[in-house]
Amino acid sequence: MSGGVDSAVAAGLLLESGYDVVGITMKMYTPSRPAHARSCCGIDDFDDARRSAAVLGIPHYVMDFEEAFRRNVVERFVSDYANGRTPNPCVSCNNFVKLGTLAQYADRLGARYVATGHYARVERRDDGPHLFRSAHAKDQAYALAQLTPAQLARLVLPLGELDKAATRAHASRMALPVHDKAESQDVCFVEGGDYRDVIKRLRPEIDAGGAIVATTGEPLGEHAGIAYYTVGQRTRLPASSAGPRYVTRIDSATNTIVVGREDELLADELEADALNLIRPERFASDETPVRAMIRYRAAPAPAVATILDGDRVRLRFERPQRAISPGQLVALLDPSTDEVLGAATISAPA
């Protein structure tokens, strides 16, 4: 229970369905934001979660997960930016904290399931768990796509069939104190609104300047640190009379930002590692048709997936994709349904 409306309603719906529910709020860092800042884990959120649990009549505990969160989320976030990649902290949190450390605590409690307020669906069938996107605009299956089948087998998602309006209606019906609370939007541990402040505090050397060059190798200027840039970015670049320039590549080995025209952001293929297949039987052939989401909220694009050695995959798109960013998750969907078949972490466009 994060202190928001989604997790509170999830707990309430489970209770109404006959589950024995225990509310857990994870203290993942020491917050300093003002009350009701638009992200989770602020100073007031623990109290909001406690008040919601009291209304529901369920036990509520605040557990210290700071070490697991620091090691598996914050340090990975900083390391990715330091290496010219664009990270997914929410994916890391789901994999390693909520369905990792929290699941281990659930084992000690004797709890069979872990439930969250994500908008996605898990179906348990004879052949194992199946993950599906929500039918509504607030779909969050992308952020769960790198969970293993074993993790998905114990995940319960009570909001999978709801939209946000329906969730708030349930919160009002249950008289939950968070029924009208503003939705969190920021990366939870980024206080003050700028992720670069976190990176500079933990990795001061990230401000080392370097060259900005064209795709031809022509020097164009200097940058103040590669963590200030992501693929597709147009700001913080030298002025040009030749039209807009965009970051097309970040070379951490040489501390170089490569920029080019917008059409130079397009790529037909990508390679990705850290492959997780929820439904491995669907990838039995050398070339498997899928739809791929290269970032959160991206429209699924038709592609062909080829499993490479180890835990890598190559995707060949039907149409070129814009700004394929190393470090981002690529979710693999069934070509004709909303089922999520797996995911991997983008290593490079190809």
3D structure, described in words:
Strand 13 (301-307) and strand 14 form a beta hairpin. It contains seven helices and 16 strands. The chain has a six-stranded antiparallel beta barrel. The chain has a four-stranded mixed beta sheet with strand order 8-7-10-9, with no helix packed on it. The protein is of the alpha+beta class. The chain has helices spanning 5-16, 45-56, 66-82, 89-109, 149-153, 164-173, 195-202, and strands at 23-27, 60-64, 114-115, 120-125, 128-133, 155-156, 210-214, 219-223, 246-251, 256-260, 266-277, 288-293, 301-307, 313-322, 329-333, 339-349. The model has no long low-confidence stretch (mean pLDDT 92).
Outline the biggest β-sheet.
6 strands, antiparallel, barrel
Strand order of the largest sheet: 11-14-13-12-15-16
Strand content: 25-35%
Low-confidence parts lasting 5 or more residues at pLDDT below 50?
none
**What's the total number of strands?**
16
What's the short version?
This protein is an alpha+beta fold. The chain is built from seven helices and 16 strands.
What descriptors fit this protein?
350 residues, alpha+beta, six-stranded antiparallel beta barrel, 16 strands
List the SSEs and their pairings:
Layout: H1 5-16, E1 23-27, H2 45-56, E2 60-64, H3 66-82, H4 89-109, E3 114-115, E4 120-125, E5 128-133, H5 149-153, E6 155-156, H6 164-173, H7 195-202, E7 210-214, E8 219-223, E9 246-251, E10 256-260, E11 266-277, E12 288-293, E13 301-307, E14 313-322, E15 329-333, E16 339-349
Parallel strand pairs: 1-2, 3-6, 7-10
Antiparallel strand pairs: 4-5, 5-16, 7-8, 9-10, 11-14, 11-16, 12-13, 12-15, 13-14, 15-16
